[in-house]
Amino acid sequence: MKTKHLLDPELWTMLDDPQIPLTDENLPRLREVRAEQVMGDPDRAGVTRTEIVTDTNPSVRCLLYVPNDQAETRAGYFHIHGGGYVLGTPEMSDIFNLMIAGKLGVVVCSVDYRLAPEHPVPAPLDDCYAGLAWFHENAGRWNVDTSRIAIGGESAGGGLAASLAIYARDKGEYPICHQHLTYPMLDNLTGTDAHPGDPLTGEFTWTRDRNQYGWSAYLGDMPAVSPYVPSRVEQYEGLPPTWMFTVTLDLFRDENIRYAQALLAAGVPTELMVLPGACHGFQRVPGTHLGRRYRDAHLTALGRALQ
Fold first, then answer.
1. Based on C-alpha coordinates, what's the Rg of the chain?
2. 218: Cβ–Cβ under 8 A, 6 or more apart, which residues?
3. 181-210, pLDDT tens digit by residue?
4. What is the C-alpha separation between 24 and 6, in angstroms, rounded?
5. DSSP 8-state assignment for residue 118
6. Within 13 Å of residue 31, how many CA atoms lie on the same side as its CB?
7. How far apart are CA 259 and CA 262, in angstroms?
8. H/E stretch holding 247
């Protein structure tokens, strides 16, 4: 392991997990593992969690988190889970979304979009836009102020959130006040022979091989263009204010930094945080100081964005 010495010792337990290759043959097994999620306690968080299916076209399943306390108006957060465009469900983010709803007093809607390779571009983004549309059009049920709806996600969910911000800006139907991106998956060229990236990144959890599989499955026969590949966007003006979080050993580190710089150059209010000593998926390790720093920074920045 060439970069283990750069990884915070609190995270060395991650290295004990078997690194199963991401292939068509292994995908069902990996999805089963990801589906085995420990759910949080809504009562303890002071939140009501409901599974809904939207009446949109396409219809999508979402998990909805509504704080139990009464409020005249609330903000909303539309969340998109990670998983390299090929794995994952909203349940994997349940504990964190309960915390967001309970601590910030916002309504959270987490979308269960269709996964590649069975459903490549444009299906995942179509699902996310349908979920955002449903959230906007039903916001009055929970006193959500539609001018205070943010979007966000982690890894591929962050990439889809960035795509959704571009798509929603260009369509002009549903405003987004903020995008909250945790090491988003933005550029299909990262990790290729043409763009291998810094050799100190991408050794753990999400590797170059996994990245190329995820992008190939997601794009299918479609060209790598915006909004599906956010790094291909030509105009950054008009995108929502952004919180960009990445870590020093993540394969996505440099594409995240470049994207944040492009937003800044376009006059988009952008906060960039680069946490040292961590790799992709580090926050899943319980009880670490790095995880606490991420949680606190995430909640503080999102709360500030939603006022």
1. 18
2. 85, 86, 116, 117, 120, 121, 124, 156, 228
3. 999 999 999 999 989 999 999 999 999 999
4. 32
5. T
6. 14
7. 5
8. strand 242-247
